[in-house]
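Hi support team,

I submitted a single chain yesterday and got back a structure, but I'm not sure I'm reading the token output correctly. Could someone confirm the output below corresponds to the sequence I sent? I've pasted both exactly as they appear in my results page.

Thanks,
R.
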Amino acid sequence: MSSTASRPTSSPPRNAPGEFPANPNTSTGTSTGTHASTGILCALRTHLRRAAPALLAYGAVRLVSLLLLAQWAHHQHHGLWPILATQWDADWYLGIAQHGYTHHLGTRYDANNLAFFPMYPFLVKAAAVLTPGTRATTGVAISIAASFVAAWGVFAVGHHLHGRRVALLLTFLWAALPVGLVQWMGYTESLFTAFAAWSLYAVLTGRWLWAGTLASLSGLTRPTGIAAAAAVTVTALLSLRNRFSPRVLAAAALAPAGWLAYVGWVGVRLGRWDGYFAVQRLWHNDWDGGAETLRRVREVLTHDSRPELFLVMVTVTLIVSVVLFALGAWDRQPLPLLVFTGVLLLIVLGSGGVYFPRARFLLPGFPLLLPLALHLSRASLRFRALTLTAALLGSAYWSAYMALVWPSAP
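Hi R., thanks for writing in. Yes, this is the structure output for that exact sequence:
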């Protein structure tokens, strides 16, 4: 794949049809302000209509996966709702929404809820006051809604860089990831991807304050929110070398604020500066530079004669992700995308923590799929159809396997 083939031939104008106005606050007066607001709403509707096929495709992929899971669960006499709403990490988030965070570090392993970032349980608690049903129902509803916002953001980034076809393929591939079921579970991946995707889109289109704000919110959602913050801050600081801008500087400072605020709050709550990292150590999440990852990869691929099928999928996902990152760098992807996926990979691969959730941890790294989307966009219709069908069926199978056969958390 050549480095020039994957780059857009030209950048869309800042206020092209369907693009949000670049700076709606430049006008003054009530009349001009009203016109600006109307323009934003019209652009939003146009943008949504343009993304509608991708969102429909996203929903179709997830529904196929859900139907297979429901059928498989029925044959095993297993309830579908607990899988989606109340097990594993979802149970931790529901506990935080119900009872709040602990005040003590303790000594028990895998037992301190301060390891879980606050944005998702806060939204669950706030929305549950206004909606019928249980907090578990509210949590799944938030994840599903956030997944469509995330898919829209994935499409927006792909469309901005490479046009409609690549954007559609990118959205489909993100929906059809092997652990895609998590997008409709009571987990934080969908919400985090929504914040990260739109933050990256804001950087690419020069909306710096939006970029910084959304990156900051991603930093309140997951530990890997620091990857989105790094993408915004590094890009902003480098752009300041060419021309100083208070907005760009503000975005650079704002982007990591959410992550730093929670980590700092945990330190104050526990009365020690390294409080959050002490909590992570109780969850076995020490940084070892990738030694544990390499050990587990070797174990799965060479030492274990009968490795767990799910661990094989996780291992292949990690290896393919590294290859796709290298291809993205070779194709000279925009800097914010490379920083985001690079830091995300560095965190996931460099952790000495548990191995099996790492495919899920990489789920927000949708820019890694751009080389595949670009290749498929140039392939024959038959090859494209076969590839997408295989991805759809594979995602449905792996999601059901992950939920019903694999005995641990996704």
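A quick pointer for reading it: The longest helix spans residues 30-75. Let us know if anything else looks off.

Best,
Support desk
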